[in-house]
Amino acid sequence: FALATGRELPDDEGWGRGRRPVINVNLYDALGFAKWKSRQSGERYRLPTEVEWEHAARAGSPTRFPWGDALGSNRANCDGCGSPWDGESTAPVGSFAPNAWGLYDVVGNVGEWTCSMRDPDPMHSFERCDSPYESRRRVYRNGGWSDDPDRLGMAFRDWNAAFRRTDDVGFRLVRECPGCALTAGDGSGGRIADQESSAEVMR
Hints:
alpha+beta, four-stranded mixed β-sheet, globular
């Protein structure tokens, strides 16, 4: 994507690319990649809303983490999770077990941009994408490699200015699939079918 569009490669902090999640990307980098990937593939890719992100992260689980309410040790990457990368760097995607729907790193490693804007009343923004021209604070979900364990958990939310790039926030895309079969009553309206990891997306 970066080479095809003449963009500078995002800084990997010397940790490597390949299976590492992309970092140092802002909201507009993520939106640009989703638009480019949609054109290249003929599918529709976009950032998830907060509701979609949490729906996919939970994979039907009501607990704080995909595996239960206790963090345990070496199940995720954060500053105090008991992993080899704790507080030092991102971990390669696939270093920990996925959730029940096969999604990796919905807890720890990097936070992930959503298309929802921070709102004093979160219910106003949870279920929609806000205008890409709105540059005020956008929500990202999930705690990252440098966060304390109390900032992990699938209900965790934080926000950043849309133009800001950091070494602990990346993104994950939704691929819309209107014709896909859905589980009865899942409330996705035919739009949630697949999420792709942010690993390798900006090589």
